[in-house]
Amino acid sequence: MKKKQLYIWHRWVSILCLLPVLMWCFSGLMHPMMAHFFKVRPAQMVLKQAAFIADPAMVSLRDLSLQQGEIQDIHLARIAEEAYYQIQIDGEWKYFNCIDGFELENGDSIYAQQLARYFLGDSTSTIVSIEKVEKYTSEYKVINRLLPVYKVTFDRDDNMDVYVHTGSSRLGTLNDDLRKSFLWVFSMFHNWDFLGADSNLKRLAVLLFSSLVFVTGVMGLVIFFTTKKLATENDRIKTRRRHRRLAVSVAIVLLMFSFSGAYHALQKFEPYTLNGQGPEPLHVEVDKLTNEPLAAVFKVGAPIKQISLKQLQGKLYYRMEFAKYGSDAAYLSVQDLQSVENGDVAYAKERAMAIANGNFELIEEPVTISKFSRSYGFINKRLPVVQIAFNTPDHLTCFIEPSSGIPGAVVRDKNRAEILSFLFLHKFNLFNFLGKGARDTIMSLAALSMVAIALSGFWILIRK
Q: In CA terms, which of 73, 74, 91, 156 is 20 to 30 Å from 29?
């Protein structure tokens, strides 16, 4: 390609990319600002409540006023300081008092409101609405992972919305007016949701323009290193020289952002399916439970914070989380109350094998992960998880959350490369050793440098 043609292509592709670059940079700048200056902080991150202790006064499952004898799961919950059986029937959670056995009408909604007040730390503001959210929205994004959730809206000056997941008693997210505005701006200007929140047109457009930004950056570098220095000293030449110097000094930033953005957009053509990779719903007839949950609680003889039903190797077990911090969960057979050693690991391996669709050998022994790291980042949300790494050609690794059976992440070689690209080239995690504040400052300056390149090039064009 002749130099004159290269100049022309660089100029026109840059013009085409000017608006997308400005949109991405300014909306990207909002992200560290919200994280440091306008972050909505919950009063509590996780639910802390009184432990459940075996009590002979507790009513048995068979004596509950169940509308049908088949259940899918059973948990324990405290509502207004009273203990309740939280039972899943046909995908819906029902609540029965552990002492008298009566069902709490609208129990799931009541529990959702209690959780919302707890996580927000607001026991006085009026709740103006509560609705069940079955799919991700512009204000409750896929990054929050948990579904279905309740959206609880409070009558406050900030119009706070709290999203809670009653099945796991966890917080989804909190959105006040400022955060809702940020989410809208970021969705429209950074993710381009104006082309459709979940459309291939949006993914294709982001991929195309990110690739064009990368190409124009490469062309700019070629022009810089293959053309002679500009000797003339008129104002227009001085402006071009400043643009050249600025561009070459931060070209690596432009290439990092555009390459990782394009790679990330390409990965987005694969839909998010982790929630759909959970275990098949159980169908357990209460009358056929040889031992009831109460018997399992008595058997362990220690305070517990939660109980659930799990199927392991074709048999039914009670999974019991102890109230004592750091204790491993116990798995007691419904049939004879016999325990399984390292039940969470065994269950995670079985779930991972189902996801891998094969009985593959493991590269290493399973590892329980209790905090986020480079290999399993905060974006995955679920903790604790068990890491299962298979000896497959694509080095499949599953991170299984034992409490739900849902993978926090399923990583293959192609995903692993994209994850590293996005973390290090787009979110600047290579500067994590300096601290989050320093990293975000560097990332913000990098985005501003791209704005400076774009506007200086545009200034050259309009002057010409």
A: 156
pLDDT digits (tens, 9 = 90+) for 336-373: 999 999 999 999 999 999 999 877 889 889 999 999 88
Query: Residue 282: inside a domain, yes or no?
Result: no
Report yes or no on 264 lying in a domain: yes
Residue 226's φ and ψ, nearest 5 degrees, are -115, 0
Whole-angstrom distance, CA of residue 324 vs CA of residue 301: 12
H/E segment holding residue 91: none
Residue 175's φ and ψ, nearest 5 degrees, are -130, 120
CB 323 within 8 A of CB 305: yes
Helix (H/G/I), strand (E/B), else coil: 22: helix
The string of DSSP codes covering 64-81 is: S--SSSEESEEEEEEETT
Count of other CB atoms within 10 angstroms of residue 11: 16
Q: Which residue, 73, 8, 45, 78, is CA-closest to 311?
A: 73
Question: With bands split at pLDDT 50, 70 and 90, how would you rate the model's confidence at 46?
Answer: very high
DSSP state of 429: G
How sure is the predictor about 229, in pLDDT bands with cuts at 50, 70 and 90? low
Count of CA atoms in the C-beta half-sphere (13 A) of 308: 22
Written as six digits, the tokens of 100 are 């008298």
What's the CA gap between 414 and 270, in Å, rounded?
Answer: 12
Query: In this structure, what token pair is assigned to residue 23?
Result: 């949109």
Q: How many CA atoms lie within 13 Å of 278's alpha carbon, on the beta-carbon side?
A: 14
**Total count of domains within the chain:** 1
- For residues 190-199, give the mean pLDDT: 91
Strands (E), 342-463: 367-369, 385-389, 397-400, 407-411
In this structure, what token pair is assigned to residue 354? 């189902």
Q: Distance between CA 88 and CA 74 in Å, rounded?
A: 6
pLDDT digits (tens, 9 = 90+) for 403-422: 999 999 999 988 888 988 99
d(CA 141, CA 379): 12
| Ordered DSSP codes for 175-204 | E-HHHHHHHHHIIIIIS-GGG-TT-HHHHH
Residue 206 in domain? yes
Whole-number pLDDT of residue 228: 64
From the centroid of its chain, how far is CA 391?
27
Has residue 155 been placed in a domain? no
Q: Which domain holds residue 208?
A: 3-38+188-272+422-463
- In tens, the pLDDT along 26-44 reads 999 888 887 777 788 999 9
Helices (H), 227-374: 235-249, 251-267, 293-300, 343-356
Which candidate, 28, 446, 20, 14, places its Cα nearest to that of 209?
20
The answer to whether 119 and 164 have CB atoms below 8 angstroms apart is: yes
Query: Smallest Cα–Cα separation from 259: which of 16, 421, 24?
Result: 421
